Amino acid sequence: MRRVSMATRDEVVAAVVERYARSSRLERGRILDELVALTGHHRKHAMRLLRAGGAGRPERRVRRDRVYDAAMREAVIVLWEASDRVNQSDPTGIERPCKASSNGSNCCGAPPPRIQSRAPPG
Fold first, then answer.
1. Would you state the torsion angle of the CA atoms of residues 78, 84, 87, 92, taken in this order, to the nearest 10 degrees?
2. Does any domain span residue 73?
């Protein structure tokens, strides 16, 4: 099978979309077989292209530049630098014992916090 260019594949899909939409289930299967043989697309990809109306690739959106004034930029930099110093402990706020400690205490030497469990019902 010869390779078909992307532009040609898009043209073929656009030509088949309307026929696919108004066909019966059996006929849609035959159309898919033809399209897969011609374009080299996987069957599922061809189905998705035909259901979407041939809109294969959306246009690229133009990104706008981020505009900060000097004060906002300085505040963002301060927050960014401070976030590097935030304690990355457990979200529950319970500090975990230091792995380097031999007795299971925290790095500061305090004993690990006790977690009270609920008594079983009954």
1. 90
2. no
3-state secondary structure 18-81: HHHHCCCHHHHHHHHHHHHHHHCCCHHHHHHHHHCCCCCCCCCCCCCCCCCCHHHHHHHHHHHH
Provide the whole-model pTM: 0.44
> Under a CB-based contact definition with an 8 Å cutoff, are residues 54 and 17 in contact?
yes
- Range 100-113 burial, b when 16+ CB lie within 10 A, else e: eeeeeeeeeeeeee
Q: Check if the beta carbon of residue 47 is closer than 8 Å to that of residue 13.
A: no
Is 107 part of any domain?
no
CA nearest to 87, candidates 106, 113, 71: 106
Total tally of structural domains belonging to the chain:
1
How confident is the model over 57-105, as pLDDT tens digits? Answer: 667 788 877 777 888 888 888 888 877 655 545 444 445 555 555 555 4
Supply the mean pLDDT for the chain: 75
Instruction: List CB contacts of 96: < 8 A, sequence separation 6 or more.
Output: 89, 90
